[in-house]
Amino acid sequence: MAVVVQNVRRADPEVIDTLGRAGVATVHEAQGRTGCLGTLLRPVWRGAQVAGSAITISAPPGDNWMLHVAIEQVQPGDILVLAPTSPCEDGYFGDLLATSALARGARGLVIEAGVRDVAELQAMQFPVWSKAISAQGTVKETLGSVNVPIICAGQSIAPGDVICADDDGVVVVRRADAADVAEKARVRLAQEQVKRARLAKGELGLDMYDMRARLNAKGLRYI
Amino acid sequence: MAVVVQNVRRADPEVIDTLGRAGVATVHEAQGRTGCLGTLLRPVWRGAQVAGSAITISAPPGDNWMLHVAIEQVQPGDILVLAPTSPCEDGYFGDLLATSALARGARGLVIEAGVRDVAELQAMQFPVWSKAISAQGTVKETLGSVNVPIICAGQSIAPGDVICADDDGVVVVRRADAADVAEKARVRLAQEQVKRARLAKGELGLDMYDMRARLNAKGLRYI
Amino acid sequence: MAVVVQNVRRADPEVIDTLGRAGVATVHEAQGRTGCLGTLLRPVWRGAQVAGSAITISAPPGDNWMLHVAIEQVQPGDILVLAPTSPCEDGYFGDLLATSALARGARGLVIEAGVRDVAELQAMQFPVWSKAISAQGTVKETLGSVNVPIICAGQSIAPGDVICADDDGVVVVRRADAADVAEKARVRLAQEQVKRARLAKGELGLDMYDMRARLNAKGLRYI
Amino acid sequence: MAVVVQNVRRADPEVIDTLGRAGVATVHEAQGRTGCLGTLLRPVWRGAQVAGSAITISAPPGDNWMLHVAIEQVQPGDILVLAPTSPCEDGYFGDLLATSALARGARGLVIEAGVRDVAELQAMQFPVWSKAISAQGTVKETLGSVNVPIICAGQSIAPGDVICADDDGVVVVRRADAADVAEKARVRLAQEQVKRARLAKGELGLDMYDMRARLNAKGLRYI
Amino acid sequence: MAVVVQNVRRADPEVIDTLGRAGVATVHEAQGRTGCLGTLLRPVWRGAQVAGSAITISAPPGDNWMLHVAIEQVQPGDILVLAPTSPCEDGYFGDLLATSALARGARGLVIEAGVRDVAELQAMQFPVWSKAISAQGTVKETLGSVNVPIICAGQSIAPGDVICADDDGVVVVRRADAADVAEKARVRLAQEQVKRARLAKGELGLDMYDMRARLNAKGLRYI
Amino acid sequence: MAVVVQNVRRADPEVIDTLGRAGVATVHEAQGRTGCLGTLLRPVWRGAQVAGSAITISAPPGDNWMLHVAIEQVQPGDILVLAPTSPCEDGYFGDLLATSALARGARGLVIEAGVRDVAELQAMQFPVWSKAISAQGTVKETLGSVNVPIICAGQSIAPGDVICADDDGVVVVRRADAADVAEKARVRLAQEQVKRARLAKGELGLDMYDMRARLNAKGLRYI
Hints:
By secondary structure, chain A is of the alpha/beta class.
């Protein structure tokens, strides 16, 4: 039952980087308003914006053993994604594990549990999105699995899926959809540029999106 | 049922600015420890301190259509205040709407729901107090109302009421009370200046506020 | 029942400062993964790292009278620790009380309730760990006690216990254990330095901690 | 600031009783899907269904003095509605106060705080909807007000408004709207009776509400 | 994007009924301590114990249109499972929909949102596990999907998976694993019967499970 | 560090039974409005009212091994009290452990975590107050301690302290105070009987407690 899958297919690095540049809100719109992880996940420091391939970790509550196992599976450009098998806020990850993850080329950690050493994580510029900040340590007694499908913060995540994360939160893009979503996000960004310029000049969304007739038809009254 | 009230009476701009300079905690004390919105509302970035006239929005869960309608009603110095008709954390507002609101002269947004593009909002210095940060988008299918009385984070807010917001949260001052509260806040700030100087020199609150006799009468024992 | 205990034994100042330099996560590990206060306590501004002797306060909900009483008991190097007798998020503490506490030499406040004036607290560099940020004020009507044992955020705290706090949260060290824990923390920090260097060079935790045999014995399979 | 308003206008008793028989969900629909208090309010025992005129209470956190004051204002058929001035879960109300309220003819209590003696409340069949069950007692030190407008669980409530409550929660109907809403609720109940019979026979909502064309137009695909 | 999948493969009815008799805790253990949905899901009335095939529904927040669509897909023995596309507590389901679902042979509803008419649901003995009880109604404006894979309360659920639910909560068993898990649950129930008899006679778990040596080896000290 | 203390001093059985009959709210008042455990602890079934001597358990998250160890320490009239070393909602306890605990004479369980088999627990009439109901199982890998002082739901509890629990929640009475508190509770119950009779006849609390003068002095105005 406790397994480490070593062979993970990843999306094209250029596609991943395009998704990273687009940011979470745009990627989420580009794939039809889906894929957002729950708002309980927050960046432990503000200002990072990354995308990478998911190395998934299913770990017992209060036990971070599998993080050590997972780091061996990391390739440059990957993002660790951990979901506990039952809800937990303990500090699974701190500056030593971050040092090790960075040395392997990891771009960040998404964890539906707690982390610690957050001042050091910020100093190292290692991005983490977590459910909690907690100095409470963990044990290394019970196995879990690495690179199996997991549910993290309400979304299903498979190893190799693309994870995008920034100050707005985290979104997952299926590996098979990544190229298509990246292209849609690219187009969307360009369109937003145009809209932003028009709105900045004072044009109203009501006019730009041609909403007045439909509002009227639905029965909106001005008084 | 779905209406846009176009004629909003606002408080005197100088009164509003006095309230803005006083800050939330002082304004709240000046009006008798009332008016604070719930602590679930937090600034999406730290450091803003504003006051403005409320443009109120009652919107369905997961539907931001009325924000577009409301922005047309904004005059320079206004603050948008949105309450969903049932609890929701979706991202109703992002950098495009902020661009539009800024172009109309809005000073900020208070929303008992979610917003996104928070890095951009901070870069634009557009202040937002929200219940959540969420990239999860919304639809434009169901009407709501603009400039009707709403309940936001546990306080009743009428269009034209003065909203003050800073890192401590948000407080509402009834339009009719604004001049009186602003004057009391001004006096209070001056008094606090004096108290601060005395406390900084080491004088105790026990002495400065003359508390010792009353503590003794209530039965406090030193051992 | 309402008492102020004036005679508080404190730990050795050098021991306290060693604990302060070690930080919360390390201190917590050094005393056997115990002593963390709950994650509901968060710094109201990021970047402080302190240790000090606890001046404890048991206060009624929505009543901050005892804070004034407690400040008289503060000696340089102390940290105020307040637990309400029933759950409360009101703003018990702001910039005036902080001015007074600073004048007495207090190093910070830990409070399982709310505080306000957080922009000023940051400007003054007065560190606070609280459950909430709230401008909602309090009254001065009901007595509590100072320097009695309290439960704060799930931990028992006696007056004179050492409180360590940083961006990871808060941990308590019993006064009688402080010297021993400080020594263990010092050793631990030195060891972590070595480990960090090895991990930074790419050595895996799996090898550095010699985990492979035990993982295999427990049944972990690589596929 | 602390006042007791003694003159409360109430809705017609028959109207109130019609609303009580209709139940919360139906009344809420009958007035256009508005008026529900937040889901944090739950019945302390299951099975009650009542309606009555609101006697409103604004009380400090952890202080139940104003409940004693309010009970004098109760007339047969009234419901006590209490909102604390800041969030609180203490047990404001127990079997003694319930005995007194019952003797005055009160039909129940709605409270955005805690109550206790819930086994006795159930034995007495005194209905209570509360935010918490808590044995934690309160003091009688600080004034509040009776029969002023309050915000309870996210809804504005004026003295004399009609409160309906059952196992689904609580809804408020403005006094001035009560007769109209009661009539709409009565019609609605009759219509539901017919619909229920058709659905029970196996007719689908898709057909009964004629939804298929609109679903098709919106783009729903069957595969 | 909005689809209704009409062809759902279901597990063997006898297997489903065996799982239903075993109950949630036993089924969860029988499949290796996996599959529990989050504790936020609670029965709206106590005492039901059911199992059935999942008819899955992905619905927008505050919009219950897809429930009407889903009921047409129900076959006798099915359980409706609804997850909103973003968090919502509105009352999606009440006694009319329950009447219709019962008429189609549904055995219950699992919903990560709210329901209403809970007194009627109990009277009808229609079992529901929900995140909230709320009279707040919904609209019928936006499409969703039926019988696509969903994430409900932290678990991935495919149409046709077996859902077991009782007073302990809800667990999902993959359709392909159902027969195997049912057999293991059957064996487990028999073993528990034996253990229960021995424990009832006063035998200790320490002896029955032969734990003393391992506790001693781990270092447990009796003092 | 992991110890089992075998020698627990208990309060007098008659004192314990007097406290049990008084109920949680009365006991809490009798000892000066102190000792209530947090409202997060709720009975898993309604109607039990018990008192007993605490057998305390400190257990790791997701690991119920120490419950088996603790049951050996139970004497008739004891109540098991478990606090996890970090927050956890897993189901530590079910019908097998309850069978064993009952066979040893335990009167109940108070646990700041989850339990399961709640239908069976009710059928057996074994009372449990817990933070959660969860079928999610636990492991037996990591030691904890039995009969050491713990913090449970915000209260310090020593082995042998008296635990009282009913539908209102849980309160702890120090062993050394138990006789005194029991006597005060007995007196209080008698007084409440008299008050209840007077209130039932329509006498107001305002008069019975002689509150009018003090309300007037504080400034309450009737209008």
